[in-house]
Amino acid sequence: MAEWAPYLDETGSVDPHKVPVPTGETPLFTIGGVALPLDRWREYDRKYLYLKREFFSAEIDRSSKTDSAWEAKGSYLMGPHNASSKRNKVFCYKVLDLVKEFNGRVMGVSFVKSVRSPMNKTSIYTKGLQILAERFDVFLRENDSSGIFILDSRMAHSQKGKGLDRTVAISYLSFVFGNKDGQMLRRIIEAPMFADSALTAGLQIADTVAFMIYGLTYAEKLSPQGKVDDLGYLDYLHLKCYNRPLRDSVFKSLNTYAGGQQMYGLRTINHHDAPASDQSLQKLKQRFAKQEKQN
C-alpha cells in the first residue's frame, strides 16, 4: 500500500519561446509540488478547504463552482500583477504552514529553456518526472515507505487514452522498466496517477508550491534585478519572502549518495542561451569604467 504521494503540478510552458518573450510564452518551465502522507489526506483536504473559505469566500460565492472545486491558482496568487496583495501573501504563508504541519516534503525541477535549441516539449516533462522519481525514491527508502505519483491531469476532460497524460505515463514506465537507473526505483508503486485538480486538494496545494519554485527560480536565473524590459523577463522579486519558509520543507536526504553529496529536492536545468540584456551590458560597462578609474 502506498503511504506517500508527491502531488505534482506544472508552471510555465514546455513550448519553445522567443526573446523578447511575448505574452503567452515563458522562458522557464517547472514541475513540482509536495509529498504528503496519504493516510492523512482527509485532514489536509479539509484544512485547505477551510483556508480557501477564510480568504476567498467572496470569489467562491461569485463563481459557479463549489468551494472544493474553486481553485486559488498560483499565477493569480503570486503573479507580478498581484505583487502587492497582502491577502494573497498571507494565504501563501498559510499554505506553507499547512505543508509543514503534515511533514510535507517539497520537490521540484525547473528548466531554464533554450531559445536556439529548445528541448522537445514532451521530453522536458518526462525528464523532470524522472529526476523527481529519483528523489522521491530516496525519500521513501530513508523512511522505509512506499509511494505513488499523483499529477495534475493536463487532459482531465479529454477522451480517455489520449493526450499528454498517456504519453508521460508510457515514458515513465519505459524509464522504470527499461533504464538501469529506473529499475532501481523499487519504492514507487505503479505508473503515475493523473487527477483533476478541481477534485484534489493535494494538487491545489501543489499548484501554489510549484509556482513559488517557478517564481524564485525565475528571479534567480533570469531577472535577479527585477523586470528586464528588452528581453521581456518579468519581475518575481516579490516572491523572495517565501524563500526561507519554502526551503524549510524542501526534501534533503539524510545520507550521501553519488559523489558523496546529499540529495536535494530542488534542481534547476539551465539551458539559458538568450543574449545579455541591454540593462545587464550597461551595468557591466559602468562597473568596468569604475574599476578603470580606481586603477
Secondary-structure element order, N to C? EEHHHEHEHEHHEEEH
**Which value, in Å, is the CA radius of gyration?**
20 Å
**Level of helix content?**
40-55%
Low confidence ranges? none
- The CATH class: Alpha Beta
Structural class: alpha/beta
What this model shows, in words?
With 295 residues, the protein is of the alpha/beta class. It has helices spanning 41-62, 74-78, 86-101, 121-142, 164-178, 201-221, 243-247, 278-294, and strands at residues 4-12, 28-37, 105-112, 150-152, 193-195, 252-256, 262-264, 266-270. The chain has a single domain (4-294), classed as Ribonuclease H-like superfamily/Ribonuclease H (Nucleotidyltransferase, domain 5). Helix 1 (41-62) packs antiparallel against helix 3 (86-101) and helix 4 (121-142) crosses helix 5 (164-178). The model has no long low-confidence stretch (mean pLDDT 91).
Give a brief description.
The protein has 295 residues and is of the alpha/beta class.
Write the layout of secondary structure elements.
Layout lengths: L3 E9 L15 E10 L3 H22 L11 H5 L7 H16 L3 E8 L8 H22 L7 E3 L11 H15 L14 E3 L5 H21 L21 H5 L4 E5 L5 E3 L1 E5 L7 H17 L1
Parallel strand pairs: 1-4, 3-8, 4-5
Antiparallel strand pairs: 1-2, 2-3, 6-7
Tag the structure with descriptive keywords.
single chain, 295 residues, alpha/beta, Nucleotidyltransferase, domain 5, 6-stranded mixed β-sheet, two-stranded antiparallel ribbon
